[in-house]
Structure formats: structure tokens, C-alpha cells
């Protein structure tokens, strides 16, 4: 099976607000990771975390220009506040790191150029539903790939021959008293003279 590559859009040192942080701006917990310094500057290209297809590309009043991708694992990754509309719906992104848009400051919930991104179970997870820490998720995928690469090549799995179990020989039940009744010898009809 081919390995599915994963890569984070920016470095951990570029993070300005981690996933799950509870503060004044996020009283219910931050539904994503913000990259807003280092290389994550206005106009910086955003690389997709893995290959896949663009499932959502739209304007959201709070999140600005949004792109959502669907990946091989069935999960989605979302990228918000993009400077301009990102790749259109249906676009195929061939590999991790390919550019899907640029860091921006669009939408009411943005107070300075930054990328707000995360992993979700559904295509609209950027608004509601289950979300996962993108940093943790991508690192888990990378660790799993590394582990798989270190394993010696597995011997081909042999398909065992199906040995059909011999059916147990059935001992016929002795049916007693089944002696066929002998037909009484027919008497030749006596001819009456
Ligand atoms: Zn955010």
C-alpha cells in the first residue's frame, strides 16, 4: 500500500494560538490552530497537509475565504481567513505541501494576518461538529508512516488451503423390529367344484 504523505503548513514556532485554547476570544475552546508569525505572513503560500480534493471553497462572514479538503483517511482539513479565494471545489491536490491558497486577514474573526486551520470529521467542521488538533493529527500520521517504513518487508501472506473436513462417518442407527413383515404366502384360491 502506498504511503499517504502528511506535512504541516508551517512550523510549530509559527503558532500564535493552539488548538483547544480557552480564552476571551474562544470561550468554548479554539476550534483550530493559528499560525501568525515566522513564515506564516500575509500572502505566504499555504500547503495542503496531504493530497486530496477540495470539498468546500467559499466565503464565510467570520472565517473569510475558506478552503476545505477531503483526504485519503476520510478526514477533512480546513484553512480559513485566506487572502483571496483558494482553489475551487473539485480541485485535485496531488501531494502534501501543494499550495491551496495564501495567508490573509479576511472574515470578522480575524484580527491580523494568520492561518486558522484544523482537521474535521465532516466537510463543514470549520463551523460546527467534531474537530481535531491538526498539529497532533499530522504528527500522528507521520509517526505511523515512519513506523511502517521501518518494518521489514512483510512476507507475503499465504492463503491456507482449505482442507475440507471429512464428514464423520455416520453409524446408522439400528432400527429394531424393522424386519419386513413377510407377506403371508398367498394361498391358491381353492377352486370349488
Ligand atoms: Zn483561530
Helix percentage: under 10%
* Largest sheet report: 8 strands, antiparallel
Nearest-integer average pLDDT: 88
Order of helices and strands: EEEEEEEEEEH
Write the CATH architecture name of the domain at 12-144: Distorted Sandwich
Q: What general form does the structure show? A: elongated
Estimated radius of gyration: 35 Å
What fold name stands as the CATH topology of the domain at 12-144? Glucose Permease (Domain IIA)
Instruction: Give a list of the ligands.
Output: zinc ion
CATH H-level name of the domain at 12-144... which superfamily? Glucose Permease (Domain IIA)
Counting H and I runs of at least 4 residues, what is the number of helices?
Answer: 1
Instruction: Find the structural class using helix and strand composition.
Output: mainly beta
Termini, distance in Å?
A: 102 Å
Amino acid at each position: 500500500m502506498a504511503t499517504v504523505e502528511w506535512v504541516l503548513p508551517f512550523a510549530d514556532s509559527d503558532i500564535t494560538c493552539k488548538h483547544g485554547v480557552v480564552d476571551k476570544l474562544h470561550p468554548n475552546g479554539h476550534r483550530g490552530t493559528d499560525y501568525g508569525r515566522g513564515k506564516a505572513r500575509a500572502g505566504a503560500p499555504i500547503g495542503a497537509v496531504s493530497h486530496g480534493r477540495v470539498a468546500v471553497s467559499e466565503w464565510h462572514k467570520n472565517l473569510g475565504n475558506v478552503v476545505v479538503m477531503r483526504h485519503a483517511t476520510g478526514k477533512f482539513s480546513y484553512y480559513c481567513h485566506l487572502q483571496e479565494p483558494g482553489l475551487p471545489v473539485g480541485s485535485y491536490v496531488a501531494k502534501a505541501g501543494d499550495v491551496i491558497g495564501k495567508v490573509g486577514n479576511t472574515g470578522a474573526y480575524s484580527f491580523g494576518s494568520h492561518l486558522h486551520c484544523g482537521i474535521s470529521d465532516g466537510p463543514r467542521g470549520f463551523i460546527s461538529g467534531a474537530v481535531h488538533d491538526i498539529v497532533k493529527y499530522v504528527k500522528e500520521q507521520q509517526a505511523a508512516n515512519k513506523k511502517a517504513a521501518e518494518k521489514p518487508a512483510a512476507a507475503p501472506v499465504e492463503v491456507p488451503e482449505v482442507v475440507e473436513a471429512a464428514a464423520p462417518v455416520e453409524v446408522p442407527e439400528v432400527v429394531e423390529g424393522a424386519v419386513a413383515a413377510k407377506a403371508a404366502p398367498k394361498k391358491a384360491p381353492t377352486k370349488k367344484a
